[in-house]
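Example complex used in Figure S2.
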Amino acid sequence: MESNLIVRRNEEMSVMEKLGILSDAAKYDVSCSSSGVGRRGDGTGIGNTLAAGICHSFSADGRCVSLLKILFTNECIYDCKYCVNRKSNDVPRASFTPDEICELTIQFYRRNYIEGLFLSSGILYSPTYTMELIYEAVYKLRTLYRFQGYIHVKAIPGADAEIVRRLGILADRMSVNLELPTAEGLKRLAPNKHRKNILTPMRQIQQGITQNKNEIALYRHAPSFVPAGQSTQMIIGATPESDYQIMMVAESLYRKFDLKRVYYSAFVSVNEDKELPALPGGPPLLREHRLYQADWLLRFYGFEAQELLSEKKPNFNILLDPKADWALRHLELFPVEINRADYRMILRVPGIGVKSAQRILRARQNGSLNFNDLKKIGVTLKRALYFITCSGKMMYPTKMEEDYITRNLIGEKERLPFDRDGMTYRQLSLFDDCGDIFWKG
Amino acid sequence: MEEFYLICEDSLEGIFTGIYDAYLKKKPHGQIHLLTGGEENYRLFAVYETCTPDEGKAAKVAGTIMREFGEEAYLAICRALASREPDKGEAIYKTVAAGLAMKNKRQVMGNLANPYIHRVFELARFTANEAHFHVEFLRFRELESGILYAPIGPKNNLITFIVPHFADRLPLENFIIHDDVRNIFAVHPARRDWYLVYGDEKLKQAEQNLSEGEKKYSALFSSFFHTIAIKERKNYGLQRNMLPLRYREYMTEFQGK
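Predicted assembly (698 residues):
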């Protein structure tokens, strides 16, 4: 009787109301990237993808809007304590039909509002049933509407392996949410979810991708399976893990599961629950920021989690970014001679990023570089000057002393992407995507 | 010392012709300068000459750049050519001269210690970044006729860099991208190649009437755009860094606010 009532209500709802409810419910999912796969349109439909990904707008919190991020339904049989859509919450519920999703995606896409579809869902009846619904919508979009843009879908833990496989052939990226960094945290806050169930589809997708690469090597036109790779996300600050634990988990995900990205999501308190921490200062954004900085160091700068943190020093420095923090603890390696040092070492200098390091390597082939050249190349000299020499000279006479340099680096106020609250990342458009650097020269 | 100033037209053809004529002079490059368009303060004891754009000369210079420097550097120079900055002609000329004197000519754009090459690099980056912003933030509106219409107001003349992207993406759509500042239209008829139209009044009049679907979907997207923000993380400063205000004038989700 009651379920009938809900269905009727849902049919009466306008697309506008549904979009309101189902995008509001999806907004806490962090991943918005549309990168990792470059595919030209074949001229018979609509859409292409760019390896670097494209952000189409930035919302009031500064986060990028790249995909139409919605839930299929916000009905859910689970009762995860941190989630707005938990079963015991009294919130308006709605469900899209596959046609509504296709129509919205196409109409938004052709106006250049979005780069594609991000489809997740609350769990209706069972994980497999829910994934069948998602599959139906995505299948329709790909075949009937001939949509060739980006599609990111969630794999729901506990669903049949078969449906995950079928969906993987249609989607560009799949992700399984790790939810919380450790199994204990998960047990406490998400009683219906189990670590093992989460890792199973993750492993399946990883193996599918590897196998598919071999197939494509053999048959060029073999259908590609999750070509943009898989990602995951975990909530930071809802459970008491240290930064060290979180980084170790992230590192093993990158190594053992070949993930493209791990997203960290500062816990936003949406439910009142005795198991959840009270966060009077708002979401732990600085902590999230430091984790992302360290994540970049792992992926692009050749660092290992063990170098940045340890059992004895389990959390990041609030005042210094992880790279500067590392450099200060390893002053014996500095200063580095810019005109001779190898790429790996140049990358480790605070104030020099991947692009500057590459430019230095190319530019020094034509003669030695001085500090002025470095400035033009894009090196942040006020941070780098303590760690480098050009032709044997430092920029200013500098004491190689930890305290002295620390004082000076902290004095140069770090530019955080937020002042007191709010922050995020524009998706990185340099490496996820070595394939073709299409726009930026 | 005699100095030469070659005044060329502000176009790919004009500047490449200027470079060709500069080489014809057989003088040290330091004595020759390229100017684009407008009057300057004329200098005493300098010779001013006007170059008439010549397709043949320009093609030769383009061919040399392509052959000696490679496609990537050629593309960078083309982007610099689209720049709005008046010193682009001089920077490109001196870059070509410096590049041809290098041992490894394909590495020309890597030689950032050279001030002219660095300038070309800067100009090219500006155009490329602005082009990328337009790929992100350009918004089509559907007109009553079903044509998609997008006005843009770029600082650099970048329309030719962005249309191929949309032509590949929307092959079955009739669409028009309109550079509001220079009054250039890029027209893409469905299933056919796109072309440029300069300052057409008829096209301008067609802009006005929006279709019924347009009102519905622009309202849906605006509402989506506002609900997707997490209020606990509100950060307008970051939003402004990522999405500069000058683009918002043309963006659907910022209309009527």
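Chain A has two domains: 2-233, 322-411. Chain A has a mean pLDDT of 87.
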